[in-house]
Amino acid sequence: MKKDLFKWSKSIAVCVLFGSAAFSQEEHQLITTPQLKISYVGGLCDVEPGKQAYQFAFLKIENLTNTALHVGFNIVTQFAEGCSGCNANDESLYYLSLTPNQVFTAGCGTDDKSKIYLRNPNFSGAWNFQELRIENLVVE
After folding, report:
1. What end-to-end distance do the CA atoms of the chain give, in Å?
2. What is the number of structural domains in the chain?
3. Among 133, 134, 140, 30, which residue's Cα sits nearest to residue 73?
4. Which of 20, 49, 66, 75 lies deepest, with the highest CB count within 10 Å?
5. For residue range 98-134, what is the model confidence (pLDDT) as tens digits?
6. What CATH number does the domain containing 60 carry?
């Protein structure tokens, strides 16, 4: 009995470890233009000590030109239960200035809208993430 419990616990730990790594490694393309590329990767951030890490999407925004760019867009997060940013309000607007050929990548330490909350696994009523979209893109 103890051996079976140990094997089962070990299997769960391996799944969690590799599931978290897989979640954080895949890059998802959102927008590609001659001037700009926007994608995201999923990742986990410790938010509450002693609790499971929250799931986030981290935007990666690339200036593909040799000139400075100013970009603005709405970030839309679609969940099975509803949508965040679907009404294109000020809360979903994001602006960024990029130097020539700059690659901006958000992370756990990022304190702006480029770090997008997806799920709190500690909350049983958490919404289920489906997709992330960029709308109303403006590049100057």
Report:
1. 65
2. 1
3. 134
4. 75
5. 999 999 999 999 999 999 999 999 999 999 999 999 9
6. 2.60.40
